[in-house]
Amino acid sequence: MNKSELEEVKSNKKVRGKKVPLKIIPLGGLGEIGKNMTAFEYNDEIIVIDCGLAFPDEDLYGIDSVIPDVTFLIKNKEKVKGIFITHGHEDHIGALPYILKQINIPVYGTKMSLGLIEIKLKDHKMLNDCTLVMVEPGELIKLDNFKVEFIRNNHSIPDSCSIALHTPIGVAVHSGDFKVDFTPIDEKMMNLQRYAELGKRGVLLLMADSTNALHKGYTMSEKSVGETLEHLFSKASGRIIVSTFASNVHRLQQISDCSIKYGRKIAFSGRGMENVSEAARALGYLFIPEDMIISLDEIKNYPNDKLTIVTTGSQGESMAALTRIAASTHRHVHIQEGDMVIISAAPIPGNEKAVSNVINDLIEKGANVIYKAIQDIHVSGHACEQELRLIQALLKPKFFVPVHGEYRHLFTHAKIAQSMGVDKANTFILENGDVLELNKTNGEVTGKVPFGRVLVDGMGVGDIGNMVLRDRKNLAENGIITVVVAIDMKNKIIISGPDIVSRGFVYVRNSEELIDQVRDIVTNVVESCLDRNITQWAEIKNSIRREVDNFVYDRMKRKPMILPVIVEI
Amino acid sequence: MNKSELEEVKSNKKVRGKKVPLKIIPLGGLGEIGKNMTAFEYNDEIIVIDCGLAFPDEDLYGIDSVIPDVTFLIKNKEKVKGIFITHGHEDHIGALPYILKQINIPVYGTKMSLGLIEIKLKDHKMLNDCTLVMVEPGELIKLDNFKVEFIRNNHSIPDSCSIALHTPIGVAVHSGDFKVDFTPIDEKMMNLQRYAELGKRGVLLLMADSTNALHKGYTMSEKSVGETLEHLFSKASGRIIVSTFASNVHRLQQISDCSIKYGRKIAFSGRGMENVSEAARALGYLFIPEDMIISLDEIKNYPNDKLTIVTTGSQGESMAALTRIAASTHRHVHIQEGDMVIISAAPIPGNEKAVSNVINDLIEKGANVIYKAIQDIHVSGHACEQELRLIQALLKPKFFVPVHGEYRHLFTHAKIAQSMGVDKANTFILENGDVLELNKTNGEVTGKVPFGRVLVDGMGVGDIGNMVLRDRKNLAENGIITVVVAIDMKNKIIISGPDIVSRGFVYVRNSEELIDQVRDIVTNVVESCLDRNITQWAEIKNSIRREVDNFVYDRMKRKPMILPVIVEI
C-alpha cells in the first residue's frame, strides 16, 4: 500500500465506516455556453471547480454579465474549502470578483490563470483581500476528503488543466476545456499518460467538455494556424493588423514569431490586449524581444511593411480596437490601401452580424481582410468527436456527465460516451442545480439546490429581476407615455395638466395632433371619474391607462407603456 | 430589320437623335441583404425592378420591418411606368403595400409572384385598388423607351425570373436572385440559351446576385435535398415534422412526394404555410392529391408513422409553429418520443441563437432533430462562384454592377467579373441612392437621390426616426426615472412631490432607500432653484436631470433616462 492509498484508507475511516456518497452539483455551464461552475461535496467538505460568467443574451437588455447563483455555497460556507480554476477564460474565472465578495475562499490555479485573475481582482480593488494559491500542472492539493490533482491539457490559453478529484469512493475527472494538440506551441502536450494511468486504476466519473461534440473528426493543432500566418506574412507588402482573443497567448506567440521573422515591429492595441500580452510576457508565456515591441504612438515612425498591429475586437465588440479601426474612430490606426487585416478568430454565436459589419467596413476602406470563412486562420480550442472518444478510451469511466454545452451538445456527447461503453443508466445529462449522488455502484439525481442566473448591471449584482427586464423590453419596443395630471381633490377638479410626455414612442414634433388627442382623452377620463365620485388614485390611473392604451393601439397598432402620475393638491 | 429592331429605331427617334444616357438608381439592396429595389430611368420613363423589405437589425428596437425611401419615385411620379417583380420573396415584394399607397403604379410579375402579392395586398385591404399584370417567363412588356423581358431562372421559389431591359442604348440584364439548377423540381431550367443569345448580340450592363459570391464551386441542385429526405423518410418510424420556408414550394413538393410514397398524410401548420401551400396548389405549382392533406384537428386520427406535419418556424421566429411546438405551446402538436423533426433551412444571419434554442428544446423533449449542421437537408437558392462565372461567360457584359449583398459580397463579385474580362473601370460597386449614368461607352456615378431606410412600426411608416430609436435604446439598457414635482410659482414653494416613479431601472420594493435619496436630492435642487429665483422650468429640469444622473451613476454606475415633469400651480 503506497502513501496515497494509505491516506485514502484513513480518509474513509473518518466517515466512521459508512460510505457517504459523492455529490456533484453543477451551478452553471449546463444547457448553456458560459458561467461554468461545479460544486463537489463529500462528507463535510465542498470544493468548487471554476467560477465563470456568461455574456448576456440579447433579451437581457442593459445587462453587463451573468453569473451563477451561489446560494448553495453561501448556505454551506464553512464547508467550502476552495475554488479550483482549470484555466483563465472569462467563462471560467469571470464571476470570481462577485462570488469572492460573497464567500471569501482560497482560489487555486496555475500561474497563467492566476495572472489573469489578478488583473481582474485589481480592477475590483480586492486583490489584497483574496487568497490565491499557485499550483503546477501535476500537483496534488490535499484536503480532508478530497485530493485535487491538476493534469495538464491543451486549450486556447496556456497552462490549462483538467482536474482529477480523488475521493474516498473513487476518482472523478473533470476535463476542463480541452483539445488534444499533438504539436502545441509551448511543446507541453496534454498529459494523456496520466489520463491512461488513472483509467487503468479505475475512474468513477468523467465530466467532459461538450462544446464540439457535434463536430466529427479532430480539432486541428494550433500550429496549423502558424502555417497560414506564415503564408500571409510572406506575401504582405503593407501593414498587417491581426485581431484575436488576448488570452490566446499561443496565437500571439505565432503572430509575434512571424513578425520577427519578417522584421515587423509589433504594437498591441486595446486594453485587454495590452494587459494580457504584458502579463503573459512577465509570467514567461509569451516571448518577444523587448526591441521588437513598440507603442501605438511609434507606428508612424516605421514603414508599413515593418509593422504588425495586434488588436482586440475579433468579435466585433462595439468599443474594441478593431471595431474602432473599422469605423475610423481609432486614435492611432486608420486603414490605408494595402493594409492586410487578419481576423484570427471565429464569431461566437450571436456575434455574426457585428463581425460582418466590421469586415464590410474594413474592405470598403481598402483593406484586404482575411477571415475564417475564406481562409483557415483559426482553430477551435475544444475537442471534436474523435478526441472525446480518445479520452473515453483512456479513462473508461463508470459514470459520465457531459458538461460545457447546450442541451444538443450534452445529448450528443452522452451518445458518444455510451457508444464507447458507458452504461446508459450511468450517463447523466444534468441541469444546473441538480444534485447527483454517486456511490461506487449507483448514481441518482436526488435533489435540487438554488441555481440560475444572477444579472450584473453596473455596480448592481442581482438587483435586476424579471419585472425590470420585462419593463425594459416593453420600453425598448414601444417607448413610454407619461401622463401627469394635478387634481384638487377637495373641489374635484383638474387644476393642472394633463401633461403628456413621451419617450421612444413617436417623434413629438410630428405628432402634435396625436398628443392633443391623448390629452383630451385623459381630461375626459379624469373628469368622468371625478364626476362619478371616484377618488381612488389606482382606479383613476387604471382608467387612464386603459383608455390611452386603446386609443393608441387603434390608431397605430402600438402598445407603449402608459405611466399615469396623479398629483394631489 | 425585324419588328423589334424597327421599334428600337423608332424609340431612338423619340429622343430626337440625341442619345440620352441610361440611369441606374439602386434604392435598396446594396451594402445590405434586403429591401431590394432598383430604378432605371431613360428619357422621360422610369421603371422599377422589385420592391422588397428588410428585416430589422436588433438595434432597431420595436421595428417590424424596413422599407426603402422612395422619395425619388414620388418626385417623378408621372414618369414611373411600373414595378417589375423578379420573384415573390419578402425582400423583393414585401414593401409593395407601403410603396403602392404612396405611388399607385402597375405591378408586373409571374403567376406565383402575383399570387403571393395578392395575399399581401388582401391583408392590407388594398387588393382592389392595385393593378397587377401577369406575365409569362419569356414575355416582353413594351413601354415607350424600355422593353422589359422576363427570362426564367432558378431560385428557391417557383416562377423566378431575370429581367432583360432593352433600351435605346443597349440591353441591361438584371439577374434577379438565381442559381443554375440543372435538375429543377419543376423541370423548368433557367433559360441559359436566352442568356447566350443576348450575350452574343451584346449586353451593355449586367447586374447580378452577389449573395454567395464568397462561396467557391456550385450550389447543389434542389433535387439533392430530395435524396436526403427520401433517406430520412425511409427510416422514420414515428411522426415526421418538417420545417421550411413556406415559399420554397419545390421543397414542399419534395416533402409531399416523400410523404405520399410512404403513405403519410400531410398537415400544414402556421399561417404562412397554410396560405402559401393553398395558393401554390390553386395556382398549379404544388401537386398533392386532395385526400393526402388533412387538417391539424385530424392528426390524432392517424398513427404516428402515417403523418407528416409541415410547419413554419425554421428561423426560430418567436410565434411560428415549430417554435410553439418546441415550447409546448402549440395547440395540436406536442413532441413525443420518436418524433423526427427536420429543419430544412439554414439560419439567416442573426437568427442562429433562436434556431439553436428551438433545436435544444426539441431534443430535450425527445425528438430526433435533423438540421443543416449535421445533415445536408438544405441547399441555397443563390449562385456560387462558378455559376456567377457562367453567366459572365454567356453574357459578356460591357458594364457590371454587383447587387444583392453586403459590401464584401459586392466586392468579391466585382473581382470575379473583372477576372472574366469586365474592365475594372466599367465595374461599379454602387451604394443605395447612387445615380449611375451609362452611355454606350462610358459609365459614371453622377449624383445621389434620397435613399435610406424607412421604418415600419405597427401602422406607422416612417414616423420613427433616430431620436426615437436612441430613446428606445437608452430605455432598453437603463430604464427611466420620472420625477414629478408641483410648484406654487407665486409663493415659490413645492406644494406636492417630488414623486419618483421608475420603470426598467431597479426593482422598486428593494430600493426604497435609493428612491428616498433621489427624492431628497430633487427637493434640494428645486428648493435651491426657487431660493435663487430661478423660475424657468428648463433650468430647473436641467438641474434635476444633472443631479439625479450624477447620484445614480456614482452609486450604481448606471445611466437611466431622467424625465423631470414640473406641474405649475
TrEMBL record, chains A, B:
Domain Metallo-beta-lactamase: 34-229
Lineage: superkingdom: Bacteria
EC number: 3.1.-.-
A GO MF term: 5'-3' RNA exonuclease activity
Top-level EC class as recorded in UniProt: hydrolase
Subcellular location: Cytoplasm
Active-site annotation: D209, H382
Gene Ontology BP terms: rRNA processing
Residues binding Ca(2+): G62, D64, D457
InterPro entries: Metallo-B-lactamas (IPR001279), RibonucZ/Hydroxyglut_hydro (IPR036866), RMMBL (IPR011108), RNase_J (IPR004613), RNase_J_2 (IPR042173), RNase_J_b_CASP (IPR055132), RNase_J_bac (IPR030854), RNase_J_C (IPR041636)
Residues reported in the UniProt entry to bind Zn(2+): H87, H89, D91, H92, H155, D177, H404
Chief subcellular location: cytoplasm
Keywords, comma-separated and alphabetical: Calcium, Cytoplasm, Endonuclease, Exonuclease, Hydrolase, Metal-binding, Nuclease, RNA-binding, rRNA processing, Zinc
UniProt cofactor note: Binds 1 Ca(2+) cation per subunit. Seen in 1 crystal structure, it is not clear if it is physiologically important. Binds 2 Zn(2+) ions per subunit. It is not clear if Zn(2+) or Mg(2+) is physiologically important.
Keyword Endoplasmic reticulum among record annotations: no
Amino acids binding substrate: A246, S247, N248, H378, V379, S380, G381, H382
GO cellular component, one term: cytoplasm
Named cofactor requirement(s): Ca(2+); Zn(2+)
Complex and partners: Homodimer, may be a subunit of the RNA degradosome.
Family: Belongs to the metallo-beta-lactamase superfamily. RNA-metabolizing metallo-beta-lactamase-like family. Bacterial RNase J subfamily.
Protein purpose: An RNase that has 5'-3' exonuclease and possibly endonuclease activity. Involved in maturation of rRNA and in some organisms also mRNA maturation and/or decay.
Name the record gives this protein: Ribonuclease J
Organism: Clostridium saccharoperbutylacetonicum N1-4(HMT)
Gene that specifies this protein: rnjA2
